[in-house]
Amino acid sequence: MIHQTLATSITIKGIGIHSGEIITMTCHPSDKGIISISNIKEKTPTLELTIENLAQTHNRATQFKNETANITTTEHFLSACAAFGITSLNIEIDGDEIPILDGSAKEFCNILQSTALKPIPSKSLLPIIIKEPLTIWEDSACIIATPAESTLYSYYLSYNHPVIQSQSHTIELSTKNYITEIAAARTYGFEKEVQYLIKQGLAKGGSLDNALVIGDNDYINEPRFKNECARHKLLDLIGDCWVLNRPILGHITGIKSGHQLNHAFTNLLAKKYL
Ligand SMILES: [Zn+2]
Fold first, then answer.
1. Which residues in the chain are classed under CATH 3.30.1700.10?
2. Which pLDDT score, from 0 to 100, does residue 99 have?
């Protein structure tokens, strides 16, 4: 396994879910073996998207910060990077959040698919090999890692709700499988919760164009998959594990886990294997 970057720069533009503002990010090739980001509007120093800079945060997004800079809503972009094995980038952005696009990783994958990747042979990239079962709990949620000969991800969720009840999905991670099974799964929210967020002045950029919304008795907009919610949670889990910037050889199963538990899990992996 080797570090990879882009052969040429790419630009992605879209609304920020929190600010509601249009954000432009340009990803440049880098040979440093790390993904880093600079806010060109605030002119803050470069922030490295590493586990050391992972912010202690709520369950809604994956945020990185240091003394001077912060960036949020990174998980869907990092998930697409995991699918393509991209470990090294220099990103310039004119805001403090990654564009939400349609709430999935589909557009990120489309643009990455149309761009050549460049290996960085001078840097070795060792996978994290899960050598023994590992479990982490948070209330009724947990993440289990078990040894496996490839990279497998599973997710199971259940709600006491007539529309989604329980859903699950498993994927053997490859670029091809990710594009067909995971990339298009959008973030989701319950109608009442969405109304509350809008009332609080949060999620200014949120709309039916960037989320699957669940009403009391039915979906408000059309789901893309029968188990779109479980697929999206897998997308998040894959992105949160890419904070380690290393492929994982093993089977990772998330049961009702969110960003907070995902982060605790990656910290546990870092402590044990890095
Ligand atoms: Zn998400």
1. 128-273
2. 98
* 21 CA from centroid of ligand 1 (Å): 19
Class of domain 128-273: alpha beta
CA of 123 to the centre of ligand 1 (A): 30
251 is catalytic: no
Identify the pLDDT of residue 121.
85
219 CA from centroid of ligand 1 (Å): 18
- Distance (Å) from CA 121 to ligand 1 centroid: 32
Kindly list the averaged pLDDT for each block of 10 residues, start to end, along the chain of length 274: 95 95 98 96 94 84 93 97 97 97 98 96 90 97 98 97 96 98 97 86 88 96 98 98 97 97 97 93
Determine if residue 139 is left, alpha or beta; phi over 0 gives left, psi from -120 to 50 gives alpha, anything else beta: left
34 token code pair: 């790390």
Catalytic residue among 3, 18, 259, 263: 259
> Ligand 1 centroid vs 233 CA: distance in angstroms?
6
**In CATH, what number does 2-124 get?**
3.30.230.20
For the chain, how big is the Rg over CA atoms in Å? 18
pTM for this predicted structure: 0.97
- What per-residue confidence (pLDDT) applies to 253? 98
Q: Indicate where the chain has its CATH 3.30.230.20 domain(s).
A: 2-124
